[in-house]
Protein: 3-hydroxyacyl-CoA dehydrogenase
Organism: Agromyces larvae
Amino acid sequence: MKHITVLGTGVLGSQIAYQTAYRGYDVTAYDVSDQALEAARERFAKLAATYRAEVDGAADGAADAAIGRLALTADLADAVADADLVIEAVPEQLELKREVYTKLGALAPSRTIFATNSSTLLPSDLVEFTGRPANFLALHFANQIWVHNTAEIMGTPATDPAVTRAVVEFAESIGMVPIELKKEKSGYVLNSLLVPLLNAAGDLLVEGIAEPEAVDAVWRIGTGAPMGPFQIFDVVGLTTAYHISAAGGPQQQAFAKLLKERYLDQGKLGVATGEGFYSYR
Amino acid sequence: MKHITVLGTGVLGSQIAYQTAYRGYDVTAYDVSDQALEAARERFAKLAATYRAEVDGAADGAADAAIGRLALTADLADAVADADLVIEAVPEQLELKREVYTKLGALAPSRTIFATNSSTLLPSDLVEFTGRPANFLALHFANQIWVHNTAEIMGTPATDPAVTRAVVEFAESIGMVPIELKKEKSGYVLNSLLVPLLNAAGDLLVEGIAEPEAVDAVWRIGTGAPMGPFQIFDVVGLTTAYHISAAGGPQQQAFAKLLKERYLDQGKLGVATGEGFYSYR
C-alpha cells in the first residue's frame, strides 16, 4: 500500500491522516468543502505541535515533514483515483455513510480497499453499498491515536482474509497495535468492555451506594488504573454518556435522568466545559 | 481505639493484623489452634520481609517493630477481653461466622466494635448474632493491603453513625483510603465494577470475538490500566473465576464451561500454578 486516502477530517479523521503521513505515507485528506479543508489545515498544524511536544523524535523535523506528505482536496474523484486504501471517517450517520460508499464504489478502482472507522455501525450495515464486499472491512482507531494506538480490525463474512492481513500490516506500519476481531461485534472490544464498567458505576450512583470520588478511588487503587469510571465519563463527555444511557434499559435510563438533572442542565458536560463529575478549572 | 483484635490469620487476616501493628497499634491475632498460630507466625515473618522490600521506610526496623506489637492467641475470651475493635476475618462460611459472632457477642465488652472483613456476605446477614447492632459494620480490605490500600466501610441500617466515623478514622490511621458505602451492596464497590468488566471479557471469548491477548491489549492501551481482564483473571485465580461464573446466568455458565475445559482440566489455574491465560514460567 502506497497511497492512502482518508475521507473526513474531523477529530478522528484528521488524526488518522496525520499519523499515517507521520509514518511516511503519502496521504490524501478529503472533505466536502474548502471551509472544511481550512479547518483541517488548522487541525493538522495543531497535531504537529502536539506531536512535537508529546511524541519521541517528532521535534526533529518529523512532525513538520508529515504536513508535507498531506494533500487536501474537496474533489472525491481526485481523492480516490489512485488510492490503495480509503479510510472512511465521515460523520456517524448511516444514510450519509451509505451515500458516501455508493459514490465511492463508482469512483475508486476495484482494487482499492475500503475501511470504515465507524464506532457505532457494523461493516455489515454498509457492505452492500461498497461494490466490493471482499475489499471492505472496519479499521477502528481510538481518540489520541498517538497515545491510544490500537487499531481494531473487523471484517464481514465476505471480507477476503488476504485483505484483512494487508490491513493488519498497514496498521502495524503506521505504529498501531492491530487488534483483530474474528467476528463482527458492536462496540468492538474496547466499548464491549468499557460500557459494562461504566454502567456498573452509573448503577452505584443511581442506587446511592457511593459517591463518584469514592468509586473512582476504589478502582484506581484496586486495579492500578490511572482513572476511575467517573473520570472516564468526564473525558468521554456527559452528553455522549447521556445519549448512550438514555437508549439503554431501566437502570441506564435512571442514570441518564440523573446525568441530565445534576449535570447537563447545569452546563456541566465534563472535561470539555471545565466541569463534570469533577472540576477542571 | 487502642487495642485491636483480628480474628483469623489467613491471607487477609494476617495482612490486616500486620498492617495495623505496622502503624503502631497493639494487635492481638486470634486463630483456632496452636498449629494455625504457628502458620500465622510464618505469615507475619514473610509480611515483614515483603514490607522491608516494598514499603518505603519499612527497612529501618519498622517492619520488625510491627512483629513486636503482635500478640498471638488461641483463646477467644483472652483475645477480645480488652478489645476496642474486633476485625473478623474468619473463613467465608455463613454458619461459621454466625457461630463466631454468637460466641464473640457473649465474650466481648458491650463497647467493643465488631467489623467483618467478609467479601461475599452483607453485614445484615450477621448483625442479629452480634448482640450489638449499633456497634457492627463491614470493614473490607483488599489483598496486598500495603499496595491496594482501600478499606470499604459498609454498615447496616442499625449501625451507629458515630461508630462508622470511628472506623473511618481508624482505617485512615492505619494508612488506608476509607471508602464509605452509604448502603449495603453485595460485592462492595470494587467487585460491583470488576465483575461486569470480567463478565464482558468472558463474553468476548465465549462468542469467539477476540483472543485474550488482543482483549487485554485493547484495555491496557485504551484505558492506561496496567492489566487487562484476562491478566486479572489469572491473578484472581481461574478456580475462583470458575465458581463465580458457574453461579451466573447462561453467558457466565458458558464461560465457566470454557474455563473448565481449556484451563482447569489442564491444571492451568492462573499465576499461582505458573499458567492460566498466560504462562508465568
The mean pLDDT of chain A is 96.
